[in-house]
């Protein structure tokens, strides 16, 4: 807090990060780091911090306000950067077109004979060469945001690194929301052995079910990895409490996955025995 008051925002960010390394559910640290990152123009990270703090305390109105402000600033910055990139691309295309026209003019022979172009031909040429109106050229806010989001996801997918905290894991995971293949790549990049230390007391029912569902999609090709994940998830400190708090729908999904995927009779014995031992811990 002291660093924020004297406007030493980088030190404030570092200080909050150290605090979160000790306790990754420290809401004030997320909130203060969000403030520091906003001042450092790290709008995406600021929004993610505020969002995570809000997930920890959904009824905290101050944190909710901070999240909405951070989200607004991130979206504004995203649109500005996307619009700038599109503008630079358009300028590049326009320059290439101008260069092509000049070369064509230089290479074309001079024609002295005057010819009369039919009106219908002129009309066709005008239609073909008509420049789009400003309304047609300007993409919508949704299109700009979608392009930027797609580009960000592609860049992130190429540089997946093992997360060092539950917060980092969840941020990356949510960034790949809807793309199970990318989420599976995150699981493969994260050693199952680090799960207890990674999640500590931050494992939620939603995250657990998301991981289980993703593991089910790669089980046939990654049996050993899947079993190791299932084994190490049970070692996370809040695992038993999370299982007890699963909704009826989650319990149904869990049983379905176990019956149809992890309980398949074609599974090799070395994996089947370990899965049989794990089943009572997941399906209660």
From TrEMBL:
Do the record's keywords include Flavoprotein?
no
Q: Where are the TPR repeats?
A: 27-60
| Pfam families for this protein | RPAP3_C (PF13877)
Under the heading Gene3D superfamilies, the entry gives:
Tetratricopeptide repeat domain
> Organism's domain of life?
Eukaryota
Instruction: Give the matching InterPro entries.
Output: RPAP3-like_C, TPR-like_helical_dom_sf, TPR_rpt
| Positions of the RNA-polymerase II-associated protein 3-like C-terminal domain | 162-251
Q: What are the record keywords, sorted?
A: TPR repeat
Designated name of the protein: RNA-polymerase II-associated protein 3-like C-terminal domain-containing protein
Per the UniProt record, the lineage of the source organism begins with:
Eukaryota, Viridiplantae, Streptophyta, Embryophyta, Tracheophyta
